[in-house]
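Protocol step 4 of 5: obtain the predicted structure for the target chain.
Materials: sequence only (see below). No template structures provided, no constraints applied. The aim of this step is simply to have a reference model before the mutagenesis design in step 5. Sequence pasted as it appears in the construct record:
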Amino acid sequence: ARVRDERQDAAQRARRAADALAGLAFRLRERSGWQAKLRELADDAAESEARATVCLERARAADEDRRAAQRAADDARRTARALRAERAEIAGAPETVPEPEADAPRAALPALREAYRAASQLYEKVGVGADLRAEQARAESDESAALAELDRLTNKVRTRAAQLLESTDGADGPSRQAAAARAESLVQMLESRASTASEQLGRFRGEAERLAPEDGDTHTELPAELVPADAEQAQTLLRTATTELAVRTDALETARAAHGELLYAHRAAEDGAGGFDETAALLRDLLRGAAADDHDPKRGDEETQAPEPYPGTLEEARHSTAEARRSLRACAGDLSAAEAGVREACDVLVRHANATRYEQVRTPARQQIRELPASALPEHAAAWAQAFAPRLRVLTDELAQLERNRDSIVDRLRGLVDSALTTLRLAQRLSRLPEGLGEWSGQEFLRIRFEEPDRTTLTERLGEVVDEATRAALKKNSDLRRDGMSLLLRGVQAALQPRGVAVEILKPDAVLRAERVPVGQMGDVFSGGQLLTAAIALYCTMAALRSNDRGRDKHRHAGTLFLDNPIGRANATYLLELQRAVSDALGVQLLYTTGLFDTTALAEFPLVIRLRNDADLRAGLKYISVEEHLRPGLPQQDPDGETVHGEITATRMFKRTPEPVAE
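Step 4 output (structure tokens):
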């Protein structure tokens, strides 16, 4: 039952496959008919497109004619309205115009309008004799000139002009201008159509001359039933012939494809026969060589013995032969790979010897490697390896020692860089401001931000700095400085890569807002007084940092700063208060010198000492001389001698109020 089910399934699949193949065969049989029908439809579509193009051109021409007629109708209506308005202005004109007689001559409207205008002027000027005679003379001269111009025209032109003047287009000047414009556009349109038709006629004539037979009236003689009677029948016969040509072309292509397949099979058979012939000749040569070896008298008894036949069967012999051939091919492949590896190693060795960095090496082995051909290098490889072994050990030891020295230098530089980064963090911590400064209370005047590098990355970057300095030492014209401070600065810069260090400083203003500005923008954002205040705060921070580095962080006094006339730039009260608050917080004593008498600024200081150098002022000097050795106390003046005004004669002492000690 299982086998029957399997056979039924297989039969069902076979029937489905047979149905599918039958459908494909039907499609293949109908393919040529469908292709012929497709070509016929393509020809019909092309013909329809051509007819559609002709109809479209006719429609465009009709549309242009319709627009021209519409413009003429608009002009006629406008002329009629103008004439009605003009008739309404004429006094005594009847409402209804009587029908003219058929035989009576009809006067042109411009002539009637001119007669009316002349009568009106005559009516208006009847009382003025001289003006009337002058007007009459001018009218007669104009009339004679017009008659002379009219006599030069032909009768045909006169007749056509009279007809146009009697129509609505000659009613007035605007109507005549509109009619002339329409005539001009019509002439241009007719000329364009004539040029298009002439161009198409020339193209058709060229195609007819190109397609015309060289000898005779026709290319070929056609049967009587295939001779077309008109263009439509010729197009039908042409489509039929094109379809037959496509069918014959498909048949020709199929025959050519079959012929190509037969030629390919024939060549394959010839190649196979040639291969068999070569194999047979090779076997015959082997048999003849084996027979010659058997009859060679120079060979010994063992060599002259006939080869032992294979003890196994024919299949085993074939299998053994196939295995031997497979092993031979594998060995040949390994041999080729080994030879390729040797050639590649030789090329690498030659490139290594020709490298630019070894130009200073003058060893004979390098010269031999550069001059010998690549095929002779493997013969000398063993001797070169034996000769280079001691030198390799020496160079390895030297490189190991250099690496140890480099590691020690990098470790020392890493310690200095860590100390420098610690100094940066300490500078930010020491710049903390005291209380009583508004929003600045407890704020750090400096904010130094950078990304802490890990130990491995820092070691690698500092190694690059050391290597760069070493390479610069070997160059002749290198301007890279290699002193300790330059190396430390480059090490800190490398440690803070890629983001670097960002330093921000508080901006001094009147309300002491906690607004921070990058140090690179101080020159653009700060005023002169703000710049001076920031510089004083930075100096106080650096002085406190120096005192801390010297182990005097517990000592209150961090240094003294003499300021040369800062009140000239920073005389605002809030700037002076900020300077004194920062210096007091960091233990720096500020000494201001000024020649300005700014009472508002001087009122901020608890002690003001006025100095005057009378002797130098009398001598015309504007500087103060300071003795090298200062004696303790005040100098004792000789009562009998002359009074000296160039010495300090008085001092004042300022004592601060002691701060209460917290219990």
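Step 4 remarks: The longest helix spans residues 2-89. Residues 300-304, 628-634 have pLDDT under 50 and may be disordered.
Proceed to step 5.
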